[in-house]
Every structure is written in C-alpha cells, then in structure tokens.
Amino acid sequence: MLDNSHVKIDKQTLSFKSFFNKFIDENYTNRFLQGLLASKNIYSTGKTLKKRILLEIRAKFIQEQWYRKDLSETRFLIFYCLYWWNAMAIGYLFEIEVFRDLLKSGIKFKAHDLLIPLERFSFADLTISGLKGDVKSSTYFFTFIRSSNLDHDFYITRYFDKNSRKYHWFVILKSEHWHLINGEAELIIVPRLPKNFIKPIKFEFRGKWWYAINYNIWKNKMLIYQKGRY
Amino acid sequence: MNMKTIDNMNDQEFENTLDQIGANDPDMISAPDFMDTLWEMNSKNINNVIELTARIVNDHIQIEAPDGVAVRGNEVILGNQRIVIHWA
Questions:
Q1: Domain limits of chain B?
Q2: Residue A50 CB: number of other CB atoms within 10 A?
Q3: How much is the pTM?
Q4: Residue B83 touches chain A, beta carbons under 8 Å
Q5: Does B28 contact A at CB distance below 8 Å?
C-alpha cells in the first residue's frame, strides 16, 4: 500500500519503493547475503546478522534525518523500510536453506545467483529439470493468488505449526509436474486439516489442477525422476 | 481490540513497534488459514450441495440422505466413489 507513497530527498521525489531500493536494498542486502552464504549455520548467523543490520538501518535513518521524531510523517518511511527489509531477509534465509538442502540431497538444479542483483530479481529462484520454481518463506503469498496468478511450475514454501512450534516445508506444484514425477494421479480429497501434506492435496485454480505435497516426498520423487527411474 | 495506527502512537509506542520488527519471525499465515483458502477455492466450483444426516443407532452409524443418493448403513455412493464414515 505504501509502495507508491513519496518522499522528497535532496530535491528528488522518490516513491517509497525506489527509496528502499536505492538506500536500503543496495547498501545492506548483499552484505547480509554474503554473511549467510559464508556461514555453516545459516539460521543462527542469519538471525544475528538480520538483527544487527536492522539496527544499522535504524541508526542510518536517525543520522540522515530520514526519520525525525518531530515529523510524524517520517514514521511511515522508516516502518516501511524496516518491515520490507526484514521480510526480504527472512525470504532469503529460507531460500538459501532450501538451496543447501537440495544440494545435500543430490537434486540437480540451477539456482539464481543471489549476489547478482539482476539474477536476484529474476523470474525463477531455481530451475529443476526444466521446471521453474519459486521459494516462498510463508504461505502468505497464497492469500493473494485470487488477485494474481501462479506463474511458476512449483513453489517451495512452509507453514508454522503452532502446536509443535516447528516449520513444515511443502511444495505446491502444477499437475503436469506432479504427473511427471508421480505417474498417474490418485484420488485425493481436500482435507480440513493437513497432516504435513504427507498425502498430497489436490486443488483447482483458474481451471488448472495443482497439488500441495510434503517437501521431502516431493524431493524423493524428484530425485527418482532425475535418476531416470521413471 | 483498539489498534493504534502508526501516526497516532506516542513516540515510545512507535519505538516499541519498530523494536518488534525482526524480534520474532512469526509466520504471517498459519496452516489452517492456508487450508481455509484452499477449501474456499474448491468450494466455489460446487453447484450442488447434498445434506446428509447421521445418527447412532445401536452403536452403528445410520445415514439418511435425500432421494437419488445411494446409502447403506455408514456408506454413501456418489458417482463412482464410495464414502465410508467411521465413528472415531
């Protein structure tokens, strides 16, 4: 909503989005990604580094007077930038976690290079056996699909189980993709509550069938497919 | 709940709000919400609703269904699908 709000800085008028790209993303994101990529334990490194960079961004806002307590309008800009940078950092953290897991599992894939901005914003986060995929750190994106599209062949995502306090990874994939790795489709009824998507869930979106399946099951089927056993 | 917007918080409340960003990484939507979205998407294509009534008679499930729906005890046949309902 705030993307198109404007800020006047050095006689230049910028949208919040442009301001974020120019002053925040360009200056902080690569350092965060380099830190993550160099770390063995990306989760703990990522958490610490993210917190540190958020504090740095806040300090920069004070130093440059982009945020002034006597000017309440400036609250929107600092909130917007911190919120989006944090959300972006969470996304990259999950993305790298996924890439490392796929690599460890022996899946052949090509991931975009996060350190090259043009690649970082490319359409697909990764390509596996010609299928284009996107990594989403939360199923939040799913609430908006009614006003947008599912343009990728598959989405690797996760949900947080409040009872077990754990994330469960799963994959949303086009039915062509599912048939490719699973053979004939089986009869599936949409259940009210998932059980880690061990049993695939089939659903229709804009006239096309999609499946939601447990990440490890998908990965194993993908591995078998890549080894040519299908 | 009385939620304050960014512009009507006092300075301390706003600073606390900024502190919260990055303090936790709560997932923005829980699985049941995701499933609700799926359920809604599937439901919108449905143009015929069949209502069944279940009763426990002598420890067995008895289902009553409208005409045209084949029912026997705890089993319902719909098209080429047989639905068996168990009492948990």
A1: 53-84
A2: 22
A3: 0.81
A4: no
A5: yes
Residue B31: per-residue pLDDT: 60
Kindly report the nearest CA distance between residue A127 and chain B, in angstroms. Answer: 25
Q: Which of B34, B39, B42 sits opposite A204 (nearest CB)?
A: B42
Own/partner pairs for B77-81, CB < 8 Å, 24+ apart? B78/B50, B81/A187
Interface test with B, best of A32, A75, A201 (most B CBs within 10 A): A75
Ordered mean pLDDT values, 10 residues apiece, chain A (230 residues): 78 91 95 95 92 96 93 92 94 96 96 92 94 90 71 91 81 89 60 63 80 92 82
pLDDT at B4: 80
Q: Does A84 touch chain B (CB under 8 A)?
A: no
Complex ipTM: 0.77
Please name the member of A75, A168, A203 whose beta carbon is closest to the beta carbon of B42: A203
Contact B38 A51 (CB under 8 A): no
pLDDT at A230: 45
Summarised one tens digit per residue, pLDDT across range B20-74 is 998 876 555 566 667 777 777 667 767 788 889 988 888 888 898 888 888 888 8
The answer to whether the CB atoms of B81 and A187 lie below 8 A apart is yes
